[in-house]
Design a protein that fits this description.
By secondary structure, this protein is of the alpha+beta class. The protein folds into three domains: 9-56, Classic Zinc Finger (Double Stranded RNA Binding Domain); 85-214; 242-505, 6 Propeller (Neuraminidase). The protein has helices at 5-8, 51-55, 62-163, 166-192, 208-214, 236-239, 244-254; strands spanning 23-25, 30-32, 48-50, 257-264, 274-279, 285-289, 294-298, 304-308, 316-320, 323-328, 331-336, 342-347, 357-360, 363-368, 371-375, 381-386, 397-400, 403-408, 413-418, 423-427, 435-440, 445-450, 455-460, 466-470, 479-485, 490-495, 499-505. Strands 4-27-26-25 form a four-stranded antiparallel β-sheet, with no helix packed on it. The protein has a four-stranded antiparallel β-sheet with strand order 5-6-7-8, with no helix packed on it. Strands 9-10-11-12 form a four-stranded antiparallel β-sheet, with no helix packed on it. It starts with a helix and ends with a strand. This is B box-type domain-containing protein.
Length: 506
Amino acid sequence: MMLPKSVQYIKYNCTDHDERFVYFCNNHERPCCIECMKDTLHRGLCNVVNVKTAVKDIKQSPSFVDLQTTLSDLLTNIASIIEHIGANLQELTKQKITCADDIRLTRETINSYLDQLEKDLSNEMEKTFTTKELELQNMLADLELRKTKVNEMQANVNIINDAATNFQTLMSIPEYIKSAHYEETALQSLIENESFNWNSISVIPTSIQAIKDNLTSFGTMRIKRKASNLSITVQKSRQAQLKATDFASKRIETMEFKEVFQSQIQDNIGRHEILDCGILPNGGLLFSDRNNNCLYKFDINSTSVKIDLPFFPARFAIVDQNSIAVTSNNKLHIVELDTHNILKTFHFGKESLFGSVIIYDNNYIIEDLVGYQIIDSDGKFIQQIRIKFDEMTYRAPVCYDKKIYFVDNKSSKLFCYDFNGNKIWEFQNEKLMSPFGLTSNTSNILFVCGYRSTNVCALSADGRTFNEIIGPKSALKCATAVHYCVKRKELLVVTKHGNFFVFSHK
């Protein structure tokens, strides 16, 4: 059994003074020789013991035993996570097969529908042809009768010309003239009535481009993330060291953002009232304008598209790459961004008045007059988080670890409640005035924009660590919404009047 190289290289003599180690400083966790003890580093309140005392029963010491336990726990935890991810991978493989079957079924359904359309059009063609064919055949039969009649009259007139006396000819001419005139008049009438117009049939095919424009795919792929039930084994003595809020505090104190882009929503339709913003999975930007009944979508090349809506959009949550859930009065609409179609609308009672909306654990959490209500993806009510609000306003929420965080711009405060409606903490700082928009890193850091303080601040999920990370900046006056994209490490901020900024996390 060979010792690790790092252990083999451990010296028993001091490399600075070439003296044998005699003492061990617990404060600095390093051995000391006689000369080292003369250094001011180890004087004063340092806990220094004899090196023999320090090494005695070291392999049975709490720190060594704790190290062994930690490594054992780590292996157990990693094995558990590997098993969890492996099971997830197996489930994904099964879901892939199901998705492939769904795609094939969609194709078969479309093929069946196209076959039926082809059959219907072929039947219509046969019916059209038969109708016109019968009309022409009847017309030909009628003309053949007329032809026979005229031929007979012509033959009789020729015989009269050759064999009849002049008196017989005189007496017979009027009758034949009358009959000939009748046939001539009838024929002219048929011509004037367009009975002899040329008939043709053809197919006017449906525009293939129109089909392509409206049928852009068989469907869309959706990824759902569900909170895992994993729990790692950690000794109580180490739990405090692993608290996320401690790590978050250090990150917040040193956090820096750099402005990488700024622009303004351009439109001549009237004054904007931008209430929400979001960064789409592909990096595109999305904004809701309540005053002008529309959304504005910007791609990564800054090309914008205006999406008109038949309602006043308030705030929205991004469902996937191509759809969002957006609130309006007492309704929640699911809007498809590519086609601008409203896929679903969930109606609620007249007493409801919706503000902000987020997606948490695959459910919608919507602000209403009495707090926040949770509904599933089919609009079925799950739970009401009752919070006493003084009046209706847009209290942007964030959920993390079964807690709901929200801002109140009237009181310039942030609040944290559990899902039973119990207040855990409230926060206020003079640097943050009229907080209006709230987002998070989906973990333990909240980002909030100040409507009047013209800034963006970060706050830890325990409400203890606060830092102003952007601003004050006059261009951020009337900031109404903020959204953090974890994947891109970008922060999007928009003002009520349509000025928007993208900041990158350094």
